Structures are given as structure tokens and as C-alpha cells.
Amino acid sequence: MTITAPLDDLADILAARAVRSVYQPIVDLDSGRVVGVEALARGPEGSALERPDLLFAAARRHGLLAELDLACRAAAIRGALDAGLPRSIPLFVNIEPEVAHAPIDDELRRLVTRASDRLHVVVEVTERSLVHSPAELLAVLAAVRELGWGIALDDVGAEVESLALMPFVRPDVIKLDLRLVQEQADADIAAIVAAVTAEAERTGARVLAEGIETTGHRDAALSLGATLGQGWLFARPGPVPASLDGPATFVPVAAPASPQTSIVDAAAAGRPLRRSTKRLLLEMSWHLEREALNHGAATVVLSTFQTAERFTPATQRRYADLASRTAFVGALGTGIGRQPAPGVRGGSIAVDDPLVDEWVIAVVAPHFSAVLAARDLHDDGPDDERRFDAVLTYDRDRVLSAASSLMARITRRS
Questions:
Q1: Could you report the per-residue pLDDT of 323-340, keeping only the tens digit for each?
Q2: Looking at residue 238, what DSSP letter applies?
Q3: Does CATH place domain 10-229 in 3.30.1340.30?
Q4: Cβ neighbours of residue 356 under 8 Å, at least 6 residues apart?
Q5: Distance between CA atoms of residues 246 and 314, nearest Å
Q6: What's the pLDDT at 147?
Q7: Distance of CA 71 to the CA centre of its chain
Q8: How many CB atoms lie within 10 A of CB 182?
Q9: CA 80 to chain centre
Q10: What phi, psi does 139 have (nearest 5°)?
Q11: Domain 263-407 adopts which CATH fold?
Q12: Which of 326, 317, 340, 274 is nearest to 298 (CA)?
């Protein structure tokens, strides 16, 4: 559509499909070769909403964030297709956290179909997406992987949640927040580097540093373990660079399957279960809660309590304390609401969900992981003498599989 006058109204911009993309190169820090591009949204040139911050502020103000996000994704893919971006150069496309779960429209669906064998897309998300809508985002990420696309976790290090939730996203590319290369190193930055290094070693993810504006920033990025970078030192956002061709850079990281049936069986993985009493399991659960506190703010704790009645006032107080000192705490059970205790995320499980008969606590931190899972044998007699078949494992893949299954049952924020 030809635009004859500046479009300053967001509804008009969306109707005219006037949202556009500019592209910033991503380079290999050793060779300087362009190995990818990130699509960045802009409003119509010369309009009051050309700047992305003003464009998205207007969308939030008028309740059009989902529509704008879809338009930005469509513009990113359309522009790359029109420019003939080779499949060997990954295209990074952002998804706005609050609306990551929104269904795509017909136009974007057609573009995705066109792009399926012509572009290598890497979808960028932030930890805010997972904090807001865990189940929905995990479903989106699964669909992205089914398309053969990659996943990047953006702004890692900006908030502690990005480190805590990184294992659940299992990104192909870890994008370091620009402050890590632009500020002086301190204890917080050292902790971030350690967590990112551990994740990259475990999964093979590539580390990308943003905000590189000087050679000093580039040197800092290399010292942080980044092999990829982007920033004004290399190029400002603009048209898709000409004459791009090279070997494919990113190989998707295989995410562990999340069990949708028994977490006890998944955690045991064929090993014999231990017959345990409630008293012993309580002590073991409290031990894992203490471990969560010992491993710092970048920790996730997810637990099931069978029913809301078993999430007692004393347990609520403990979990509220955990939530105030760690990144994410969730509690699941039949009848458990959206926020069963201050700071605690909740989720009600269906009466036919296998978790109704299971008592689980999973702890995931950058350098620690454990899951205790137990199946109720429904004995008669005193409550403290109830017996369970239980398993305790520190195998990180099994822990993440169990924890991801629990995370997928957390109710989204209103």
C-alpha cells in the first residue's frame, strides 16, 4: 500500500500494514563475519510513532499489543523474504512477552509457510514470557521447535529470573544483556557468567553479547565467553545486508521431553522406588527447601501437594518466604488458586491428573538440581504414618523434565 501522508495513529498504521523492519547484523567475534541478522520493528518513517518505544507504548495504551506484535513478526519475515535473505543466515525475530501466547493471524500463518523452507528463523523470548504465562509459552516453544526453528533467550542477566528460567527455555542462543559488556565487572556479573557458562557447556548453546559499541566492549564480550556479538561497532540497524552467504551457524538444542503422565515414573526412569513414610518425606522436602535457599536468588522451586488442604498455613508461610528469596516458586494441587501464598504462583490440577496421587518437589538452580517425587499408597491409619513409593534424583535432565511438566501446569497471571 502506498502511503501518501504520515501515519500517526496506531490503528491506521496497523490497517495499512505500515509497520516495517530494519535489520542489525550479528557477527562472529573472532572473524567479524556476519552470521545472522536481528529484525527490529519501526513505525512509518517520519511519523510520530517511528521509534519502537513510542510504537509499543501506544499499543499498550490502546490495547493493541497483540495486533502490533503480530504485525512486527510479519514485517520481519516479509522483509527478509523480499530481500532474499539466505537460509544459511539465521533471522532473529522477537516475540513480545505479554502476548507470546496469542494465536497468529492468517497473514502471519501464510508468511510462516513461505518461510518454512526459505529462512532459518530464531525466535527471541525473554524470561518475562515464562513468568507471565508458563504453560502457554512452553507450548509456543514446542511449536517453534516443531517448525525446525531456533530459540534465543534475550536480556540474560538483566533480571535474576532470566538465569533461573534459562533451563526451562533451553535456548539455542543465550543473549547477554548489554550492561554486562558496558559496565565494570563485579560479583553479580561473575555469577551471571558462571551460570551462562554452565548452561552453554551442558547444552551447546551459543553465547551472544549485545550492545557492543567499542573495541573495549568487544574484548569484554570475548572475556565473558561470547562468540557472537551485535552492536554499533559492527553496524547500525538498516536494510538486510547485501551479499550474505555462509554456513549455517545454529543447531537447535534438543529439549528434554516433559512427562505429562507420572512424574514419579519419569524421575525413577526404571529404577526401583523406595517405600517411605510421610515423616521421612517431610524431612527430605524441607532439606530441598533449604537447598533452594542455599543456592541463591536464581533458583526455581516447584511443588505438588495433591490437594489445597495439604498446602497448610505453615507451608504457605514457608513458601512465601521461599518466594521472597528465590526467582520463582510454584505450588500445584486440586483447588489451589492462582496465588495461594504471597509471591507464590499456583495451579489447580484436574482430578484425573496423575499428580493427584503424587507429592513432588523440584529445585532447579544454575549449579544445582534435584527432584523428590512420591506416589501415595493411600494407607489407612494415622496421617503421619502414610506410606509412599518415592524416588530422589539429582540427574539434571530428569529433574528438568519433571520441573518443566510442573511449570506447564502453572496458571497464567491475570
A1: 999 999 999 999 999 999
A2: B
A3: no
A4: 306, 307, 334, 349, 350
A5: 59
A6: 86
A7: 22
A8: 17
A9: 25
A10: -65, -40
A11: Endonuclease; Chain A (3.30.870)
A12: 326
